[in-house]
């Protein structure tokens, strides 16, 4: 059994319910894993619904997917994957107790994440301009080669596709915002650099969350953008 | 070695005598992070909701005495059964054993000072309360009339009631369930005392651990489903609306993907409680510990692949129906093994019949009736006849009231001396337990007969021919009410007047009995060390 | 709601008394009851054994009895007991599973009916239409000895048509057809319910099934107001909606000819194949572009909202009357 860290100077003491730092670290990591399991099922339910409706309305969904901006999404995918790399580097730097590198990689991760959100916002804006945003009673006009203009069912099914698209990307964006918030706190902690071991521990937990957001985006990218006519 | 760590940290653990003597100020309760106090917060809240939901049930039973709909309007009746379902499922049954007894006992049983995340634990209670406020708001806003199942397109396009407020309430309370589950999983994994291996965990811990896994894995699907209901109702996104390309059956799949495992959230902890009680009062080690653990995990696992048995007549693919029927038969096997093992635990024991044991034996009878009638519903052709009739109502009330609530009452009586340090009146407790057993059977047995005779559930008025059985059922509900009101009285009374219980009044095994009653703030004076398996009776 | 909706007819409950086993108005009902008895037997046996064991143990091993208890069951024999019990259960469960599934498949998937009756659920009534066009509400007349298929749908929320005397129940789901087939074998009056909760007057959505001798049934039909039969009504709709302009019988129109389409396999524009059943024809009327026939342009407008559920069923009956496909005949 590892000895308690509480005696060493500069190292933090465990919270009262834990025997030692090792136990506390283990609990924190496991907690995040279990939380991500929950998140997985949350997005899983949305993807399952999408899959069922995609099978049902294959042609219309495929055509509707063609109205999304594939190149912007591809850029975004690249950005998010790179941010996964910078996040991993930030964790490594914190593990090696390198303050400046940790701060630098954290800033890079945040910049990439913010850029992702900016591009996503721009994409939404252009969908709004093309009246493809059926949210909050905004007008929705959809013309399709599959039907005469203004034809109800095709437009309705296409609207369903865009609704699902906004639910999935919206929920993902909310997770991105939360992730950026967590990184901002980590950045502030890294600047002060009070307890490096604690920063190291918390950064690993934050890293798990960030990686999860990446993975969800890959699924969104595949389902909504790549499955097109 | 752990005790060394403990003494090293002793200054931080300088504690008052017991967890209750820390003060009775409102602040000391509302800001506590002690799992034992949080358990009490939950216990008080779910008791309020329980009597709230029971009042709704009692009104329904009164309406059903006569075949004509005379006491209540159809609108009120529909709102009452919806309220009854929503309150009982999400605000009583799901948190019942885990959030109260589980919260109090799980850390003690594994030999920990608290949950892994005490603040999350408190947060979960606040989230629960917030969800409760929304649900009560929904009632004040005129109530909701969709049933607890919120079936679409009725709930999204047709109902003129406060669906949104109720859905928000349930949506919120889901997060409290997730937080509790997360805490349990992490606590069981990381907070066990030295020597407390997985093979030495009491079955109550195993059951709550399996329950926590279900909470964590199933609840998010409910969250999404309710989110979609809300979006569909407010914005008309069309996902469940066939006119817009959606699919009303998709809702049922999503809903039951959560709500069937939710049944196991209710019954698994009950099984855990009963295992503890039967072992203690027959002074025998539990029969087939390994089999019991495997059964618990098998139930939790198979519970996830049987949701389609709620949809045999719905128009889902017939072959899906056949597959779901097969899995449903399969999930019955581990439950049957557990029943066998409880019975075998009595063999050559030294059985005494204190109140907790009467509850546990009642559980055995009621759960077995509920389980066996579940087999009727698993057989496809019979389910077609019985689906959405009183047979189903009777079946799940035998499981949920007969199983989960009876076990909760049994657990409450078993651990009451530990929770409070006081003993209740044994005579009254025996009376209440027997009233419960008789009341339950009288209320719900006639409903099986009604169901096979063809009477659909959720009927506000009905053909005259069915009235005799409905009257019997209502009579039973009266006896049942007695069985619930009595404990409220004598348990409250015992809080101040009951005789002191001492650390281990039942001479029971388990770490929770090796510490004073009520336990000190951090549970143990010394971190315990475990060197034998559970249930070392004799 | 004290004032009931004006169109809801008064409830007529058949006066048949309380029967714990409802009348067996079909052979199928009898078979389901056999399964029920078998399960009652098995559960009675298991419950009896459990109760006997608990009582015997409770008496023999009560704490006040100060007697030597003897050895507990050894772990190995205990495990054998568990496994043996589980195997025994699995075996009987497989039998029950097979039994229940057989009956279920027959009820829902058989397609050799003599009469097809359309049932449309609506808040809060059941509307039936017989092949000859006769309609009725909340009461369903059936002939003895003929195999009846119910084609069920809903025009608003989900309902469920429940006929306890036939041990039959099937949900009515908007946008979808469900079916069930059975053969009444005994004349009489039986109960009819909506079993899926559907709103305020759910409990009033009930009525009766009247099973008549064949001659009486014909007489009953004849006594009804003369209306065009279901396929004929569909033909008139087909004309008035202008469908014939494109769906020309000789195949020269912009859209495929419908002769012999019903029940055939249709090649779609996306390369897949579907069977032209009721669901496909319904989808083609309300969402024509979703499953476009190969070789045709998407020119057909949707008739969603322009035709009622009952009218769609009439159109389907008309297309059915244009002949089953050769493939279907050969089978």
Structural account:
The complex is a heterotrimer of chains A (229), B (538) and C (331). Chain A is 76% helix and 0% strand. In chain A, α4 (99-129) runs antiparallel to α5 (152-192). Chain A has 229 residues and is mainly alpha-helical. Chain A has a single domain, classed as Cytochrome c oxidase, subunit III, four-helix bundle (Four Helix Bundle (Hemerythrin (Met), subunit A)), CATH 1.20.120. Chain A has helices at 21-56, 58-65, 70-95, 99-129, 152-192, 196-226. With 538 residues, chain B is mostly helical. Chain B has 16 helices and no strands. The longest helix of chain B has 37 residues, at 74-110. Chain B starts with a helix and ends in a 41-residue tail after the last helix. Chain C is of the alpha+beta class and 331 residues long. Chain C folds into 2 domains: 20-64 and 110-227, Sandwich (Immunoglobulin-like); 230-330, Cytochrome c-like domain (Cytochrome Bc1 Complex, Chain D, domain 2, Orthogonal Bundle), CATH 1.10.760. In chain C, the strands form 3 sheets. Chain C has a 5-stranded mixed β-sheet. In chain C, α1 runs antiparallel to α2. The chains are: A mainly alpha (229), B mainly alpha (538), C alpha+beta (331). The interface between A and C is medium-sized, with 14 and 14 residues.
Mind sketching the topology for me?
The complex is a heterotrimer of chains A (229), B (538) and C (331).
Chain A lengths: L20 H36 L1 H8 L4 H26 L3 H31 L22 H41 L3 H31 L3
Chain B lengths: L1 H7 L17 H5 L4 H29 L10 H37 L7 H23 L13 H5 L4 H28 L12 H33 L12 H35 L6 H14 L15 H29 L8 H24 L1 H7 L3 H31 L5 H28 L13 H31 L41
Chain C lengths: L26 H34 L14 H35 L5 E8 L2 E5 L5 E3 L1 E5 L4 E7 L4 E5 L4 E5 L5 E5 L5 E7 L12 E6 L1 H9 L7 H11 L24 E3 L5 E3 L2 H9 L22 H13 L4 H5 L1
Parallel strand pairs in C: 1-5, 4-10
Antiparallel strand pairs in C: 1-2, 2-3, 5-8, 6-7, 6-9, 9-10, 11-12
């Amino acid at each position: 059994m590892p000895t308690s860290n509480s005696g060493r100077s500069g190292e933090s003491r465990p919270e009262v319910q834990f025997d030692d730092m090792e136990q506390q670290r283990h609990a924190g990591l496991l907690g995040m894993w279990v939380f991500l399991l929950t998140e997985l099922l949350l997005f899983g339910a949305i993807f399952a619904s999408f899959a069922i409706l995609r099978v049902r309305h294959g042609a219309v969904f495929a055509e509707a997917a063609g109205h999304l901006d594939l190149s912007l999404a591809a850029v975004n995918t690249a950005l998010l994957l790179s941010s996964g790399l910078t996040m991993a580097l930030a964790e490594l730097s914190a593990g090696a107790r390198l303050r400046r590198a940790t701060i630098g990689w954290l800033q890079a991760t945040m910049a990439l994440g913010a850029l992702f959100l900016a591009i996503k916002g721009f994409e939404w804006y252009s969908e709004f301009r093309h009246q493809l945003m059926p949210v909050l009673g905004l007008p929705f006009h959809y013309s399709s080669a599959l039907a005469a203009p203004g034809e109800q069912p095709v437009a309705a099914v296409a609207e369903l596709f865009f609704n699902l698209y906004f639910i999935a990307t919206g929920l993902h964006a909310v997770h991105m915002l939360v992730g950026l918030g967590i990184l901002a706190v980590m950045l502030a902690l890294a600047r002060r650099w009070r307890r490096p071991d604690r920063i190291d521990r918390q950064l690993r937990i934050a890293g798990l969350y960030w990686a999860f957001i990446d993975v969800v985006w890959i699924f969104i990218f595949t389902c909504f953008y790549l499955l097109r006519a | 070695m752990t005790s060394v760590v403990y003494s090293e940290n002793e200054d931080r653990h300088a504690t008052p005598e017991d967890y209750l003597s820390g003060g009775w100020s409102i602040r000391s309760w509302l800001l506590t992070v002690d799992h034992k106090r949080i358990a009490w917060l939950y216990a008080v809240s779910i008791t309020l909701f329980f009597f709230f939901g029971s009042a709704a049930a009692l009104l329904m039973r009164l309406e059903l005495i006569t075949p004509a709909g005379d006491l209540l309007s159809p609108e009120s009746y529909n709102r009452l059964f919806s309220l009854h379902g929503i309150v009982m499922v999400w605000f009583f049954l799901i948190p019942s054993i885990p959030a109260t007894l589980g919260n109090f006992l799980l850390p003690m049983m594994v030999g920990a000072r608290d949950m892994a995340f005490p603040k999350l634990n408190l947060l979960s209670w606040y989230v629960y309360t917030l969800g409760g406020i929304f649900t009560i708001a929904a009632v004040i806003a005129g109530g909701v009339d969709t049933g607890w199942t919120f079936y679409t397109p009725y709930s999204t396009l047709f109902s003129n009631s406060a669906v949104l407020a109720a859905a928000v309430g349930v949506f919120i309370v889901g997060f409290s369930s997730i937080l509790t589950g997360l805490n349990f999983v992490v606590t069981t994994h990381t907070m066990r005392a030295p020597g407390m291996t997985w093979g030495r965990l009491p079955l109550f811990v195993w059951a709550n651990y399996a329950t926590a896994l279900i909470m964590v894995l199933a609840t998010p699907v409910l969250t999404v489903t309710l989110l979609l209901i809300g979006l569909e109702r407010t914005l008309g996104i069309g996902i469940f609306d066939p006119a817009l390309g959606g699919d009303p059956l998709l809702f049922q799949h999503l809903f039951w993907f959560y709500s069937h495992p939710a049944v196991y959230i209710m019954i698994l902890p009950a099984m855990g409680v009963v295992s503890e009680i039967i072992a203690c009062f027959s002074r025998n080690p539990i029969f087939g510990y390994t089999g019991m653990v495997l059964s618990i995990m098998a139930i939790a696992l198979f519970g996830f692949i049987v949701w389609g048995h709620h949809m045999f007549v719905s128009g889902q693919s017939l072959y899906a129906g056949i597959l779901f029927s097969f899995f449903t038969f399969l999930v019955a096997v581990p439950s049957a093994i557990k029943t066998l093992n409880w019975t075998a635990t009595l063999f050559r024991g030294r059985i005494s019949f204190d109140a907790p044991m009467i509850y546990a034996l009642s559980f055995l009878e009621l759960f077995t009736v509920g389980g066996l009638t579940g087999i009727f519903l698993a057989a496809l052709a019979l389910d077609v006849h019985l689906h959405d009739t009183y047979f189903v109502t009777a079946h799940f009330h035998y499981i949920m009231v007969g199983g989960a609530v009876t076990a909760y009452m049994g657990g409450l009586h078993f651990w009451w001396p530990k929770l409070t340090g006081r003993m209740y009146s044994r005579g009254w407790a025996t009376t209440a337990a027997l009233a419960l057993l008789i009341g339950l059977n009288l209320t719900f047995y006639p409903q099986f007969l009604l169901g096979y005779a063809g009477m659909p559930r959720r009927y506000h008025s009905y053909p005259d021919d069915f009235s005799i059985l409905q009257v019997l059922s209502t009579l039973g509900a009266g006896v049942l009410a007695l069985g619930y009101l009595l404990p409220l009285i004598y348990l409250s009374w015992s809080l101040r007047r009951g005789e002191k219980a001492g650390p281990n009044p039942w001479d029971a095994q388990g770490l929770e009995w090796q510490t004073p009653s009520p336990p000190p703030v951090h549970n143990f004076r010394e971190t315990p060390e475990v060197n034998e398996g559970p249930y070392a009776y004799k | 709601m004290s004032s009931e909706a004006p169109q809801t007819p008064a409830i007529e409950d058949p006066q048949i008394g309380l029967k714990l086993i409802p009348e067996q108005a079909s052979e199928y009902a009898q078979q389901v009851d056999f399964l029920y008895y078998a399960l009652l037997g098995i559960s009675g046996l298991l419950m009896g054994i459990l109760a006997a064991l608990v009582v015997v143990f409770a008496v023999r091993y009560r704490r006040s009895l100060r007697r030597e208890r003897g050895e507990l069951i050894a772990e190995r024999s205990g495990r054998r007991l568990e496994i043996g019990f589980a195997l025994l259960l699995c075996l009987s469960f497989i039998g029950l599973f097979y039994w229940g599934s057989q009956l279920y498949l027959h009820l829902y998937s058989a397609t050799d009916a003599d009469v097809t009756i359309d049932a449309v659920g609506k808040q809060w009534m059941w509307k039936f239409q017989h092949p000859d066009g006769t309609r009725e509400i909340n009461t369903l007349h059936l002939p003895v000895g003929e195999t009846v298929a119910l084609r069920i749908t809903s025009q608003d929320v989900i309902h469920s048509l429940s006929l306890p005397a036939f041990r039959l129940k099937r949900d009515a789901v908007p946008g979808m057809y469900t079916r069930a087939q059975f053969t009444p074998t005994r004349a009489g009056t039986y109960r009819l319910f909506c079993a899926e909760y559907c709103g305020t007057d759910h409990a009033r959505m009930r009525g009766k099934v009247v099973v008549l001798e064949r001659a009486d049934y014909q007489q009953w039909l004849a006594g009804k107001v003369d209306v065009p039969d279901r396929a004929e009504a569909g033909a008139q709709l087909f004309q008035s909606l202008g469908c014939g302009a494109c769906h020309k019988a000789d195949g020269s129109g912009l859209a495929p000819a419908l002769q012999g389409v019903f029940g055939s396999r249709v090649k779609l524009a996306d390369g897949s194949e579907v069977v032209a059943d009721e669901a496909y024809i319904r989808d083609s009327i309300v969402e024509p572009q979703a499953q476009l026939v190969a070789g045709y342009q998407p020119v057909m407008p949707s008739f969603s909202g322009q035709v009622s559920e009952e009218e769609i069923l009439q159109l389907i009956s008309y297309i059915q009357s244009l002949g089953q496909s050769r493939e279907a005949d050969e089978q």
